[in-house]
Amino acid sequence: MVNEIELLREMRSEVPEGLSVSEVERKLAERTAGGVRPVRPRRRLRLGMSVAGACLLAVAAMAVLRPQQAPTVPQPSVAAQPGGAARSSGTGQAGGAVAVLEQAALVADRSAALRIRPGQWFYVKETQHFEGADLPTFEVWARMDGKRHALRTEDGELKFGKEKGPTHVGRTQQEVEALPSDPDALLAHFRGLDRELTPLSVCPLTCPPEIAEDVKVFGAIGWYMKFGAMIPPDTVAGMYRALAKLPQVSIEEGATDADGRPGIGVVFDAGDGVKAYYILDPEDYHYMGVKIVGSDNGTMGMSVLGAGIVDKAGDIP
Prior knowledge:
The chain is of the alpha+beta class. The protein has helices at 4-12, 21-33, 51-65, 92-109, 169-178, 183-191, 209-225, 233-244, and strands at residues 121-130, 133-134, 138-143, 148-152, 158-162, 249-256, 262-271, 274-280, 287-293, 299-310.
């Protein structure tokens, strides 16, 4: 059984603990001077699986288990220091976002790609809140070949079903394997999507045209990062670097996810008092969840309490 949290913590140990913002900025300058970073050969997973399918499966589980959750009101925004708990970087929000997200990319770059077999399952445990309403946590398993799915009901029973939709996690795996790892190429790809991919809608109705394309990028990155164990490490690194290129993105110290767990807030300012947060673990930068804070400080959010690849339904990574 694969535990991607432990794998991330192990890869974290490979990054120098003393890496400072100035050191990260120096590395950024070297990358800029040297042109586009070389692309590491990527260890392809032998089976593809659609992340979109896993999300659809999660939606089906929500209909049965009625989960939802409400994030907390964010702290005042300051730049974060990479490594450990977030701290003020002294370089301003834009510089802080670049430094922190580059550190997250460096951690991802040092990880090893997982090899996933068709008979294995993708697992996710997620909570949701909406305007203070706490709904039950749900757990979903989707087999990587797309043939079966399972969910744990409120009474603890494991219920199985056959995949019926046009997409499944195997097809999403094929999608993430096909994604570019270069951040500029990722930006172009996500801006060109003809469908909305997002864990939660950032704009209440429609986004203002001046930010609409960047909202598509922010939303799509969160959609895929929820399934991080399935994403090639160089693509994860590219996603962090793509986020750093969005002018609306800053880093917030003391952010919490919808369950109150502290982390690093990657904040997208959508204007009119609306902010979207991706919460990253302060130790290994894995995705913990999303929350949206409205102009009236009303909140909604989704937190990933566990996710990974397991050998059979009912297993937990």
